[in-house]
Amino acid sequence: MNTDKPTLDTPTTATASPSPPPPPPRWAIRTAHLTVACVLPSSLWRLALAAGVPLGYSAAVLRQDYDSPGWGTLYMIALSLLTEALAFLTLGLVRPWGEVVPRWLPLLGGRPVIPKLAVTTAAIGATLLSLLLIALPLAQWLLLDHLDNGVHGAHLALMRACYLPLMAWGPLLAAVTLSYHRRHRGHHGHHGHHGHHGHHGHQ
Predict the structure, then answer these.
(1) Residue 58 CB: number of other CB atoms within 10 A?
(2) Cis peptide before 22 (omega within 30 of 0)
(3) Considering only CA atoms, which of 163, 148, 18, 35 is closest in space to residue 91?
């Protein structure tokens, strides 16, 4: 006899949410923080220059070549803040706000981050940063000794030491992006279907 009355064993349609991705590995978390740290020395160097610390430049060179004090000062401050903000976004690849947009953000707050979009954006950024911050500094490194920019000796060594870590920004971002991609691969858009066992036999 076939009964249509539901029982405790009667299967129901599952509407399980996508399985959450695994937590980021420890190395990825450390690499993300290292990404922020590698941008800091050059930002501090520019901020010091903007604040009037000569750092080996003469007042004439600062006025003529860097328009400082003036618009050049604002440019150096803005560039330092922008690079730090961009580097800080790397932490989103290992933090909860890289999974769901923070609720305090207008329009997008509370919405889940699309992993494919995050990976694509970060990968493009890592590629551009690697090209810009490795090829260009290498060229400057080879040519700077031959250019009369007013910086010599200890001040030149300090400037190089502050800007050298920038060369790691692109590769470090690429490593964290790869980790983010691996964690979200196979965990986006997969819904569970439970209760199929026992679908037959209640007749």
Answers:
(1) 12
(2) no
(3) 35
